[in-house]
Amino acid sequence: MNHTALLIIDVQEAFNQRVALGHKRNAPYAEANIARLLDAFRLARWPVFHIRHASSDPASLFHPDRSGYAPQTFVQAAPGEREVIKTVNSSFIGTSLEMDLRRAGITDTVICGATTNHCVETTTRMAGNLGFEAHLVRDACWAFEQTGPDGEMHGAEDIHQMSLSNLHREFAQITTTASLISAIITKTDNRQ
């Protein structure tokens, strides 16, 4: 039995809309890597959890009545894949995610999606604190530039790297798409 699940966090149309509005982000390759991870998990028949943010603010791009709420086409859930709707940054708060993972015997989580410094980082911290072995895929998530409390603009790549540094070792193993896919292939080959 496999004990590893893929958590795809907030890969929603709202982020494409933010880019169209001129917001600058890093990692333009992230979605392609998320698609590769999703294909590898599906091929191995390992569990996939699609996590989506539902804002209660009617003006938010993530409000369920807005087009930004929809998942991006390439991460549409397949039959048997679990969809989790959250209303805060952590995928574990106010959802059945922890119970679903434990019920399925999951010990390891592979985390990807958006954005690195918000919902991805918060979910990764909680996964580690809850005792899951968290693996954050550094090239399968992204961040946006952001203005700090002093008015200084911080670049998206700097924010992304700082989040990875915050999580490294204490909360998660930071990994890459290629190394994760290689590990999946090795595990599934050894099963046969």
Task: List its traits.
alpha/beta; two-stranded antiparallel ribbon; 192 residues; globular; Rossmann fold; 6-stranded parallel β-sheet
Describe what this molecule looks like in 3D.
By secondary structure, the chain is α/β, with parallel strands linked by helices. It has a single domain (4-191), classed as Rossmann fold (3-Layer(aba) Sandwich). The protein is built from 6 helices and 8 strands; from the N terminus they run E-H-H-E-E-H-E-H-E-E-E-H-E-H. The protein has helices at 13-20, 30-44, 97-103, 116-129, 156-167, 177-191; strands spanning 4-9, 48-53, 82-86, 108-114, 133-142, 146-147, 153-154, 173-175. The strands form 2 sheets. It has a 6-stranded parallel sheet with strand order 3-2-1-4-5-8, with helices on both faces. It has a two-stranded antiparallel sheet with strand order 6-7. Helix 2 runs parallel beside helix 6. The longest helix is centred in the N-terminal third of the chain and has 15 residues, at 30-44. The mean pLDDT is 96.
Spans with pLDDT under 50 lasting ≥5 residues?
none
Residue share in β-strands: 15-25%
Q: At CATH's second level, what is the architecture?
A: 3-Layer(aba) Sandwich
- Overall morphology: globular
Distance between the termini: 12 Å
Largest sheet, strands/sense/barrel: 6 strands, parallel
- The tally of strands reads 8
Q: Looking at this structure, what is the CATH superfamily?
A: Isochorismatase-like
The radius of gyration over CA amounts to 16 Å
Q: Return the average pLDDT rounded to an integer.
A: 96
Number of helices: 6
Tell me the name of the CATH class.
Alpha Beta
From N to C, what is the helix and strand string? Answer: EHHEEHEHEEEHEH
Structural class: alpha/beta
- Please give the domain count: 1
CATH topology: Rossmann fold
Give the strand order, joined by hyphens, for the main sheet: 3-2-1-4-5-8
Helix content: 25-40%
